[in-house]
Amino acid sequence: MTLSPTLSAAIIVIGALWLALAAMLLVVAGRRMSRANKVLGAARSLSKLLSAAPARPLLVSEGGAIDPDQALLHDLGLAKRPASLDELASAASLSDKDRERLMQAVDAARLSGAPVDLQITFPDASRVYEIRGGMADDPDHEQAVLLWFFDTTAAEDQRQRLSRRLLQTEGALDSLTQLIENAPFPMWYRGPDLSLGLVNAAFVTAVEGDTAAEVIARGSELIDGGGEEGARAGAVKALETGKPFSRVQPATIGGERRMLRLVDVPLPGGAVAGFAIDIQDLEDARVELARQIQSQRDLADRMTAGTAQFNADGRLDFYNQPFAIMARLDPDVLDDGPHFERLLEAMREKGRTPETRDFPAWKRERAEWFVSTDEAIEEDWILANGDHLRILGQPLPDGGLRLVLEDRTEQVRLASARDTLLRVRSATFDNLFEAISVFASDGRLYLWNRRFCETWGLDEAWLAEHPRVDELVPAIARSLVNPTAAAQVREQIRATTAGRKSGSGRVTFTDGRNFQFSAVPLPDGNALFTMIDITDSTRIESALRERAAALEEADLVKTDFVENMSYELRTPLTSIGGFAEMLSQGYAGKLEPAALDYVSAIIESVGRLSTLIDNVLDLTRTEGSGLPIERERVDMAGLVRNAASAIEPRIAEKEQQLSVEVDGSTGVVSGDARRLREALEHVLRNAVDYSDNEGRIEVEARGTEERVIITVSDNGPGIPEVELPRVFERFHKTHGRRGESALGLGLPLTRQFIEAHGGSVGMRSVEGEGTTVTITVPREAP
Prior knowledge:
By secondary structure, the chain is of the alpha+beta class. The chain is 47% helix and 22% strand. The strands form six sheets. The protein has a five-stranded antiparallel β-sheet with strand order 2-1-5-4-3, sandwiched between helices. A five-stranded antiparallel β-sheet has the order 7-6-10-9-8, sandwiched between helices. Strands 12-11-15-14-13 form a five-stranded antiparallel β-sheet. A hairpin with a 5-residue loop joins strand 14 and strand 15. The longest helix is centred in the C-terminal third of the chain and has 50 residues, at 535-584. This is histidine kinase. GO terms for molecular function: phosphorelay sensor kinase activity.
């Protein structure tokens, strides 16, 4: 088939066009393919970049649907892909609070465009995410929110650890601050310029400041002065050496001089911290310890026992004089501090160690005392010359040893002498006249003499079995008039052995003998039982008792007679005195002067006789309780003066001198004024009567808080020493004197009156020099 040229040309043109079109398409396709490859490469790069990014995206659409990153789901441990944000929160087990916060943040971003920035903890995955985001720029998803999940688990853990450490540090800092502030000793901080920057309360108190700020402002220091002794000297030394610097210096704390240990510690940056410790008590204790050690050493020098002390190296550190004497070593040798073993060798050379076959081995055994676990080791050394030494070794806590030597030679000799003495005592004990026995603390008969067996008629062989006192009772009861008295012996021995009480008693035997027994506790816990035959003494005692009863009866008869006669004599005396008074007053007519003198003499004699009768009656009464005593307030000063005035006529008659001195302390007493005045007048009358003409009598009265003391002294001839014990006896007559004083009534009455008031009367007299009588009256009579 033949084509026309036109058709052919058309076909050619069309083919060329198709070819051109195909070429163009190929060019466009190539370009597009190149662009696609670039986009794909960019997408792959972006995907890799997104995978390597620290955040995971999550797209939340308007309806709540989500488009999560697969890596995010993997990190959250979600195997199933959630369709919504609420489903994601449920699957991840978010708390209600965190879910609500997440939803509110997404809604706020969608409504107002506010950025999302919150932190959410996913408990199931144990992860903490910081979620940031905002509205997504996506035309296909309007109102979509893009959230980026930043994994801050590690950072949060680190933050929490740092927070905990910060809290711990703050707590420790606060505690340290409180510790420093409340420390009982001063503490301070110095800046690089070495001026005070901080001080605690103890520092403020020590420098007597008000506040820490005030102390720092005025720069108060514990130590005064400058230079090497100043307060900053320690800080300078600490900075120079780079180490804590310690020193001891005195300081005045609270007005008292105290010894302080100052410590300065260098700090980074040139600052210095320091503290001060009061070591005054320690220094006092150290001084006291040194004093005690010296006192112990001084005491050791005065001991009779020899004492030596060795240090941990075994060398002699101390010894006393008795040790040097017992060891017979020269003090120069001991002063060199010889070793323990060398000291034993020196003592061996002087013969002051016991003889032994192997001295080196013996010496090594003694050297082991230094490490012995025993508190003390005792030994007896018998020396070649017969001396006996007791050795006491005491290991010391510091590894040393104290050695004590006691010379017991004399004790051994005394022990031998004691044994001899015991044998002599046994022989003497067996030949005593008294019946003697010793009972042990358990009541057994321990020791007896021959007289004990003979008195009770007991068998010696049976006593050798040491029977108990209970077994002795039936045996000794047979010999007594009253067998029950044997129980009294038993109980007395029990009381002496168990109760350590002494006792005595009497027993009568059937043969008429009387024995007095006594039980005495002995120092060793036993009881000594003795019996003495008092048969003859009992008979004499009975006779004396009968005679004493007869004398007492006679004395009562005499007393009754004196009392009756005193009362009987009063009646005629009263009549005589009354009639004499009537005569003197002219009832029977006017009398001549001579008759008036006779009547006056009668009246004076009646008065004196009445006084004597009253005195005799007072003496016949029972002393103390039988004498009526009034109770009233008595001015002793006035009483002394009145009594002295009453005796002045008699003193003027004998041309004597009377001196009365009443001290202001005399005061008053509670008692019978009449009896007290009579007592003093009796003493004054005796002093006047017993003193020669132109003699001197002195009366002195003074008082204390409890009593009044009156002293009457004269310069008369005094009283012989043999008569002094009897001057206060009733009716004792003094030879060479007449009148009431010679009858011995004054001083006995004085003593009776004063003792009735609870006081006392004393006399001191020297023959040829005079007599002094002292009366003591208590303020309040008993």
